[in-house]
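fold-stage: in
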Amino acid sequence: MSAIYLSESHHLDADARERALQALHDYLSKNLRANVIRHDAELVFSGTGYSGTVSLDEEKVHGELKLGLLMRPMKGTITREIKAVLATYLEGN
């Protein structure tokens, strides 16, 4: 299995972190049709050909995405998309 690891700093307050986690939960479940379970400030998700976690603490967001065999060739594209989506949610809007 191939994996993508991300760690990005942010300046979100508690309310903005909550909104970002909820928005990311909705994005994963609705747009990607992932099964998503939330544990406090962590999302654990899985879908066809991938699984992963995202956690959002007071200073950083950490993510790990494991790709199945068929998703490996798209690792670069998936990494760019993840970074773009995270940037949107970490703006605090």
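fold-stage: in (second)
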Amino acid sequence: MKLLLSTIRELKYDQKILINELSEKELKDNIAICLIHPKTYNKIVSKSGVNLKLTTSYGSVVLKPVWDESIPLEMIYVNKSIWANQITGDFKNKILFKNLEVEVEPTEEDVPEISNLLEKMKNL
């Protein structure tokens, strides 16, 4: 399903703040999430407990969905983080991180570890 993606900086999920306080596992559990309205989620997924794979023209990433009724329908919010960096990019020397078209699909894949994302970045 196509949605609009916006990255956000929410203090309780802020990688910059939490990186010094949490283990890698706790960081992944608290930051590698996407906020989505329950009604939008239910249009995509027929069962609970499923991760979401987000794909843009810049790449893809698997994130844990978190229901949030304050998120507009047909939108998905992702915290600014190393996970968000996998699906954002630039156009004409401007970083794009708001209102990106994103394909969202259910997946049984796990959310990637920080170490895997760092290794992937080294190999670019």
